[in-house]
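Here is the promised in-class demo. Please do not try to memorize the tokens; focus on the logic of going from shape to residues.
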């Protein structure tokens, strides 16, 4: 779903939660900073919409109202941990395996985004290899990587392309994930292996490159800042080197920074909605206040609803950041016709890197069709 915040004058597009949760077995939580949300007559107001070709089901929606010391930012990690960022340091260098200097794209959060096409590079590779270098205080044993990234539009589109391979059997595949946690975990493990929608974060230590975290994707229309806590106990000297290996075509990388400061205390009020109504005026509040078997359903493109929350009193001398904690899943509209392409499915899920070859082939087909118009 798309989430719009009331900024005092109108609704502004502000969040795009739980991307990739394509069936109930893959349902997940999301934590979206609402940068545009403003209290109006003591209330926070949100609009939630279905603007794409899918059926959406939201299980929980609540606000985390975070008051903190001035000058600090509060950024969530993928598990809902809240971290303060006071002194984010941009990378000193950023290069890929072809020697390209990416610092212009990855140094600050702006409109310059590194988003290569799903095309093999000059070495025939379908995966990038990017190393970022940061200054590190001697003795620092912990850091917070602050990343502003999202999955690309093509990467999002590839979810549908893979699902379409199931043909008329897609509902049976959904049922297998919904009914068996081990089947859903196998899909998550495959995604982590291929790094389609979750990137591995490596840190260079004395013994070599060691994975120290993961970075969950999202978007593609809004990129959220995310913190990845890093253990630096194996890093010596005054340089921190971080490595990522995103597949071509799947990721849009905007910025990376590192903060070495300890997290500061914050005050968090968890606020359940006061009211929630769909576009027909029906009360859907009971579907959004707890994680259970009741969902606020938006089955059709064009559905929308409104949520209202009480805004806690401001605390003197403190600044405020508001997060939307949601949980849910969605189902893409598919043709659900024809026999499943089992040979391609087995190759994609059984051969490392095969899904990247599939994505590159589909991208080439799209470019050919586009050129022929």
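The designed amino acids, position by position:
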């Amino acid at each position: 779903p798309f989430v719009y915040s009331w900024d005092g004058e109108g609704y502004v597009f502000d969040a795009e939660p739980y991307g990739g949760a394509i069936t109930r077995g893959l349902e997940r939580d999301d934590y979206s900073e609402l940068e545009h949300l403003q209290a109006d007559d003591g209330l926070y107001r949100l609009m939630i919409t279905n603007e794409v070709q899918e059926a959406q089901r939201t299980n929980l929606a609540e606000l985390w109202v975070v008051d903190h010391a001035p000058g600090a930012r509060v950024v969530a990690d993928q598990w809902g941990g809240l971290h303060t960022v006071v002194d984010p340091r941009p990378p000193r260098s950023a290069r890929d395996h072809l020697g390209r200097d990416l610092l212009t794209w990855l140094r600050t959060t702006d409109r310059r985004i590194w988003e290569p096409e799903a095309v093999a590079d000059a070495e025939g590779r379908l995966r990038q290899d990017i190393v970022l270098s940061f200054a590190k205080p001697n003795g620092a044993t912990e850091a917070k990587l602050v990343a502003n990234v999202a999955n690309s539009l093509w990467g999002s589109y590839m979810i549908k392309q893979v699902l379409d391979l199931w043909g008329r059997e897609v509902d049976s595949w959904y049922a297998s994930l919904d009914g068996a946690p081990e089947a859903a975990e196998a899909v998550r493990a495959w995604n982590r292996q291929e790094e389609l929608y979750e990137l591995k974060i490596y840190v260079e230590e004395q013994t070599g490159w060691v994975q120290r975290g993961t970075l969950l994707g999202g978007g593609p229309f809004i990129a959220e800042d995310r913190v990845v806590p890093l253990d630096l106990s194996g890093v010596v000297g005054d340089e921190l080197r971080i490595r990522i290996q995103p597949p071509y075509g799947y990721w849009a990388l905007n910025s990376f920074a590192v903060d070495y400061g300890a997290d500061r205390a914050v005050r968090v009020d968890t606020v359940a909605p006061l009211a929630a109504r769909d576009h027909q005026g029906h009360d859907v509040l009971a579907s959004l206040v707890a994680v259970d078997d009741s969902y606020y359903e938006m089955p059709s493109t064009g559905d929308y609803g409104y949520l209202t929350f009480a805004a806690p009193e401001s605390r003197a001398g403190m600044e405020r950041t508001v997060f939307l904690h949601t949980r849910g899943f969605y189902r893409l509209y598919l043709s659900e016709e024809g026999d499943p392409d089992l040979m391609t499915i087995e190759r994609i899920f059984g051969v490392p890197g095969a899904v990247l070859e599939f994505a590159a082939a589909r991208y080439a087909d799209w470019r050919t069709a586009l050129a022929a118009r």
